[in-house]
Amino acid sequence: MNILLIGNEWWLFDDLAQGLSKAGNTHLVYAGSASAGLEQLREKGKKAVDLVIVGGHLSDKAGIRFIHQIVRINPLVNTALVGSLPDDEFHDATEGLGVLMQLPPRPTEKDGEKLLELLGKITGLMEPTAVGAEKK
Known about the structure:
By secondary structure, this protein is an alpha/beta fold.
């Protein structure tokens, strides 16, 4: 799984990265600005990005505004946003953008594990099942 972490203070992602790495097959890529993140998403020849985690405030774009740009490039990419908005405000601000969840300003290892669990549930829903196959 390819995960793109975008933010201008990479050290804030240290604990989160530990939780994300527990899946074993994760490749983390860091980008320090919105423009660098967009370049990573647009680059040809790169492996597809499965998840984009955006810092709440970037040096050159606000996080939610940046997610709007990501959706224009790839409307199916999974995203998460670091921030501290109350739940209802977060929902209103990100409605229609497909943001999986809001992570706290200093995400922990457990937040990374929770995010991977949620992502696994969502991607499991999208996987085709064999006709007539029973679920266990």
